[in-house]
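Hi U.,

Before I forget, here's the chain from the pilot set. I'm dumping it here mostly so it's searchable later in email.
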Amino acid sequence: MGAIPPSSRGDNDAQRRSQRVMLKVTVVVLAQGSDNKLVSEVTRTVTVNAHGAQVLLGLTVSIGQLLTLRHSGTGEECRVEWCISALINQKSEKWESNL
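Structure:
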């Protein structure tokens, strides 16, 4: 699946399918580690929209890795279909991930 090219006007929000909302929700990100053991991290969303969320992760994730996002309050889970990450703080090794 290819990435959506950025707008020529530099206005990426013009291509959004739904509005982003700044909302802190406690979630658990579950993944299978390189040793095939389940690893998890409790974190919070930064923004959410109808199609995804942005979270800060200390876990290192890779393209194609299966991830599950679990709402800490309700236990509701969803499978992460698409993920991009960027290192935002090298000192704390926190990653900003769009899920």
